[in-house]
Each structure stands twice: as C-alpha cells, then as structure tokens.
Amino acid sequence: MAAALPALALGAGLLAAAWRWLRGTARALTAGSMRGKTVIITGANSGLGRAAAAELLRMRARVIMGCRDRARAERAAREIRAEVGERAEGEGELVVRELDLASLRSVRAFCHRVLQEESRLDVLINNAGVFQCPYMKTEDGFEMQFGVNHLGHFLLTNLLLGLLKNSAPSRVVVVSSKLYKYGEINFEDLNSEISYNKSFCYSRSKLANILFARELARRLEGTGVTVNSLHPGIVRTNLGRHVNIPLLAKPLFNLVSWAFFKTPLEGAQTSIYLASSPDVEGVTGKYFGDCKEEELLPKAMDDLVARKLWDISEVMVGLLK
C-alpha cells in the first residue's frame, strides 16, 4: 500500500493540473459600477466574504465589513485596500465594524450604529457561517450553528429592513449551501438539546437560510427589496477548520482541494452577481448556483414550515415576546 502512494499522488497531481488548466482561472463577475451604493457583508475578513468585499470595492461600492474579530478584520481591510488601491472620495470605501452573530447584543449594537451612521443600505449579504463545530452555545444559549447561521442573520436582517426599504431598490443576499438537502427543521429540538449531530445541524441551518429567504421575499413583495439565496459550491476556505482530517490523508486532501475546490474568488461570484448584476433586478425568492437559478427540493419550498420557522425565530431573538 505504501509503495502505491507515490504513484497515486503523481496520478492525482497530473489529473489536478489538467483539471485546473481546463477550468481556467475564473474571476468574479464585474457587473458594472456600484458607485454610490452601500453594501454590508457579514464575515468579510476571510474566505467568500473577503473575496466579495474586494470585488465590490473594486466596483466602487462603500463596503461595510461586519466581523467578529476586529483585529483580523482591520488586517484584511488593509490587505484588500492594498490589492484594490484606494480611490478618491466617493469612489469606493472599506469600513470595518464589529459584529458577533453569536451575540444578539452585538447584532443589536451593530445595527444601532449602522442606522445612526448610514443614510442608505443597498445590499445586505448574509455570508458569515459556522461549519460542523463541536456542540457549543452562543452567548444567548442557542446551538452555535443554528444561532449564528440562522438566528443571528435573522435578527440582523429584520433590524435593517427599514433602511433597506428606504433605499429601494435594494437587495438581500443569503449564502446557503447545497448541504441543505440533508437537513430537516425539527421544531421539537431546534436547539439540539435532545441530540446533536454537527453535520445534520449545519445542514438544518442552511435549510433554515433558504426558508428564511423565501419567507422574507414573500413579506417584502412590492417594497422594492429583493431577497435571494445561493450556494457557492465547494470552496477552499477556513470554514472547515472543525473538520478533522487524518494526518496521512492531508497531503492528498490538499491536492484534491487545490484541483477541484473553488477558490474564494470563484466561490464568491454568485454573491457578487446577486448583489450587483442588472440581470437580477426585481428577481426575488429564488435560489442560485454559479450565477444561475436552480431548483430546490420540496422541503425548501414549504411555505407553512417557513412561516412557522419565522414566527418561532421572532420569539427566539426577542422581536416578539
């Protein structure tokens, strides 16, 4: 077996090189200018969020990076400014704001500051996420994946709805995952106190993202605010930091991920497309992948489940008593 590993690695390397050559180096869509538009991106200091922030800044948007770790966010902002280059006033700006989606108090403080300082909000990209972490709870006692991926963004979006409506036409972009297919909304155990499976709970949070986006789109019909969800594909980011890969398998995994996984820039293309492209002006309540609309499983289109999840989420985050 050990003797076969070098040959296997060589074969995988050749296959990887061929695949990347055929695929080419895709660049995020540049769908025209975003001058004069303000965009909020959660989790913008790394991965998909960082890539989207850089491209939207390049398109001359005012980008607000909502990040938990302010020091890391400031460092990422400096790097992005160096990559993109500073422009004259009014030609694009990068702003860092502290936002911890595992804390409803932090979400409220972030929104309070945005409403005080910003005269408009054209795009909200709900991008931040936690992936298959060990069982832990948020500051408010919610299971971490459901709390961050769904509830934190649910409260954030609701508190910013007034500004989004006043800035219409405006857009909400919700980053989900194809793994929603393996999730179920169990109203008897939303907080995973009876049982916890980190993979299932991640999938459930991503299904909740889609149900939330569809229900929000329904509620916002006629307001000029559109809401769409997406899956970015399999992307090489630090989202999988809680996934344990055997030491001996890591070289092969790294090779496979280099060959077949998207770069953050490639993975962010659909987020950028939904945030900026005139092609989706007025399109709402849809699900996208690779900048194209895709079909959903019936469980992700269940309006009754979406409304019940909305009602329960309102109570959980304190919007309703």
From TrEMBL:
For this protein, the record's Gene3D superfamilies field holds:
NAD(P)-binding Rossmann-like Domain
**Pfam families, per database record:** adh_short (PF00106)
* Domain of life of the organism encoding this protein: Eukaryota
| Keyword annotations of the record | Oxidoreductase
Give the GO molecular function terms. Answer: oxidoreductase activity
Q: Which family does it belong to?
A: Belongs to the short-chain dehydrogenases/reductases (SDR) family.
- Mind telling me what this protein is named? Retinol dehydrogenase 14-like
Query: Which gene is transcribed and translated to give this protein?
Result: LOC108502181
